[in-house]
Known about the structure:
The complex is a heterodimer. Helices cover 46% and strands 19% of the residues of chain A. By secondary structure, chain A is an alpha/beta fold. Chain A has a 6-stranded mixed sheet, with helices on both faces. In chain A, strand 2 and strand 3 form a beta hairpin. Chain A is globular, with a radius of gyration of 16 Å. Chain B has 2 domains: 9-193, 3-Layer(aba) Sandwich (Rossmann fold); 274-380, 3-Layer(aba) Sandwich (Rossmann fold). In chain B, the strands form 3 sheets. In chain B, strands 2, 3, 4, 5, 6, 7, 8 and 13 form an 8-stranded mixed sheet that branches. The radius of gyration of chain B is 21 Å and the shape is globular. Strand 2 (34-41) of chain A pairs antiparallel with strand 9 (183-188) of chain B.
Amino acid sequence: MQRYEIRLSGSGGQGLIFAGIVLAEAAGIYDGKFVCQTQSYGPESRGGASKAEVVISDEEIDYPKSVKPDLLLAMNQKSCDSYFFDLKPKGILVVDSTFVHQIPTTRATTIPFTQLAREKLGKEIGANIIALGAIAVLSGIVSLKSLEAALMNRVPKGSGDFNRKALKLGIEAAKDAMNQKLGIEEYEDSADQ
Amino acid sequence: MTAKRSPGRQVLLQGNEAIVEGALAAGCRFFAGYPITPATEISEVMSYRLPAVDGTFIQMEDEIASLGAVIGASLAGSKSMTATSGPGFSLMQENLGFACIAEVPCVVVNVMRGGPSTGLPTNVSQGDVMQSRWGTHGDHPIIVLAASTTQDCFSLTVRAFNLSEKYRTPVILLADEVVAHTREKIYLPHPEEMEVIDRIRPNMPPDWYIPYEDNSRGVPPMSPFGEGYRYHVTGLVHDVRGFPTQRSEEIVGFMNRLFRKINQNFFDIQQINEEMTEDAEVIVIAYGSVSRSARRAVREARERGIKAGLVQLISLWPFPRQAVEPILRQVRAVLVPELNMGQMSREIKRVNQGQTRIETLNRIDGGLIGPSEILTRLLRM
């Protein structure tokens, strides 16, 4: 694996930079790869555009930011619109369908992360961790064991169960989405014939 | 010989956090600062890491006072540091000059953001390169280093402290928003794997101590205040005893020593990183975060059959002329990408004396120059 680029985008306060840090730590420290995690954000503490990027590679990383992301997570409509065209030709687009209603491609994986957090966890703040679980499954770039270990290492004391549950939710949701997609592809294949 | 029992460890750190780790590893035990984006994390982490090692952290009322406190702590024998960004660095210029003339070792980290004034607080820039050289008034030598990776942030902070202690001079470490906020896996060496230099203390009895007496190194021994070695510290040009002087030979002797102590150790201070320059026909000269984009661009250019090379400047001031000059003579053209209107390219052009074609690539919109922008230019050179 030469270089795998992930961009997590949305608005400030959605916990995207934190998710990026956990992902980088899982791949870098626990899986032993080279990682670079960068971010950009506006002067506001919440509400402005926020973007975290993680580059994972088997070789030393020169340019620390993403050139053409292999995977884009869009947690709101604006970031989906802004960054979709940066995605690699066969790159993976993952959107939070709670906020993203106009999806630019039929190949996108749509999971209502925020809605899931609201319903299954009782509060919205777990949405980033649900998304993190989903990304790990969809990209296959980081081992789930490492991701959980890195997450447990970074979350505040007493919130371990909440975050573990969120991660599991994301993993399950992504697996469901993948199966569904396989189903659609099989249907399309059979329809072709 | 036994094998190393406790080697270093690998951690995921932000550039700013790595600067703190570097400072602590170099023996820094005093930090005074005023938080400012994008250098805030340095203050933040120092505020709990320093007390844990019996050090002192003070949040001051502003950046003028911050460097003042740092100078005081250093005179009292503590390795000291402050960290800021453009607006704060401007306020520090007055005390920076004081540290130069009073020969007080200290490290000033400037994480560059867009300027002038409050400018672009969260965006990357390299606009303070010339300010770091000439920001404080008066003729003075200064050492400035530029970090480009998280690992650099650690190792160059250690080096900044070592140089400042060795030559009794303030050392400026320039980082930028991208370098400071990029998290990377880095190697934190075990203390036994590192070289840490401490200032030379006087070995004569206090009564015989002449605080600013010249010697072959040009660096007088320095005693911490409170140990019986009493001397006068002033921002006025002073004689060997530290008292203001107007006598021509004393002024000239003092100023020459200030410059000599840096100049005669130029080769110890000079630091560049060359990549694929042996057979290069075109080179990129870059520093800070831009050198990472340049590294990728050079590799991609090589894949396309262009004999490109990279010279990464690590010590910016004094300008590493001896190392750069032969490379300038060897190549057909040079590209200098930087996040300002051409501050370092100006110096490179000066050194080049019109011999080789120098092209510039400048970006000032708060974004980082990417590999493709550099590659596009390399393809046309």
